[in-house]
Amino acid sequence: MWNNMVYNSSAWGYSMDKDERLHYLDSLERLRGSKVLVYFAYTPLDDSILVPLYEQLKAIGHTEKIDLLLHSYGGAVDTPYKVVMLIREFCNEFGVIVPFVAKSAASMLVLGADEVVMGPISELGPIDPLIKHPIYKELWVPVQAIRYCIDYLQRSIESNPNPELVTGIITPMINKLDPWLIGDYEKALKASHQYAEALLSRYMLKDNPELVPIVTRALTEGYFSHGYPIGRQEAKELGLRVTEAEDELWDVIWSLYRGYEELFSTCDSGDRV
Fold it and tell me: Which SUPFAM superfamilies does the record cross-reference, listed alphabetically (predicted)?
């Protein structure tokens, strides 16, 4: 966590230093009866989190309950499962706290928790993992975007009897679809479905196994927008075990979020656990 950085927040009219940040973290641990880890990132979630996460867990040792304060727009399909399995090696109960955004692959982390703590502005999202483009290495592509491209091309071919259109327009577009990318897209889709089902059945929905296939299908296939906001009420309607953060608990969570948001806007920090 950020135990050695100091930053200013003139826009909010206060400064949060190391001691104040630790005070909020201590307050959150007291209110939740847990040890709290923080993952706050604007870059894609990937396996680079695993070693620093393990080092922090090893330093804490096995404890009854761990909460992960999570802000992430998603990332690689395999990483969330690894993170859940690693954290659960060190605790008997695992919760995820979402102050604002836990999207796509980050929503997968929530499925491996016993509960998700959400406030009035908190958002989960459809599980639409990202894969790296084989040529443009810094470009991460939502796999659903590739799926919709292929669906569009297929519908265009089937609905238009004009062979010249297919030859002149559609065929060049198809030729631009890299087979490696299509194969990885298909693998990522199947993997996201497999991981979601496994995590839900073992943890979040272990007491409601009849909901597992329904929620899995909804999160992996039921939303057209990569950024669709699943708020706490909709998350509850889906069947997820949601704890609604209110009063002091929410004030502490939101203060921590604003602090870390400002920290990332004033320094080039990268991902932190």
Answer: ClpP/crotonase
Q: Render pLDDT for 156-211 as a digit per residue (tens, 0 to 9).
A: 666 666 666 656 655 665 556 555 556 566 677 888 899 999 999 999 999 999 99
Separation CA 217–CA 154 (nearest Å): 23
Q: What are the structure tokens assigned to 97, written together? A: 């706290």
- Residue partners of 62: CB distance under 8 A and separation at least 6: 90, 91
User: How big is the CA angle at 264 (ends 258 and 269), to the nearest 5 degrees?
Assistant: 145
Q: Is the distance from CB of 170 to CB of 157 less than 8 angstroms? A: yes
Q: What domains can you pick out in the chain, each with its CATH number?
A: 7-131+181-266 (3.90.226.10)
Identify the helix (H) or strand (E) that includes residue 192: helix 179-199
Name the DSSP class of 13.
Answer: T
Q: How far is CA 109 from CA 63, 67, 113, 118, 248, in A?
A: 19, 12, 7, 14, 25
Determine how many CB atoms are found less than 10 A away from the CB of residue 219.
26
Cα 226 to its chain centre, rounded Å, is 12
SS3 content of the chain, % helix, strand, coil (to 5): 50, 20, 30
CA–CA separation, 144 and 208 (whole Å): 28
Helix 212-221 and helix 179-199: axis angle, to 10°? 150
pTM of the model: 0.78
At residue 269, the pLDDT reads 43
> Alpha helices of 40-142 — where are they, by DSSP H?
50-60, 79-88, 105-111
**C-alpha torsion 231→235→236→238, nearest 10:** 140
> What is the token pair recorded at 143?
């796999």
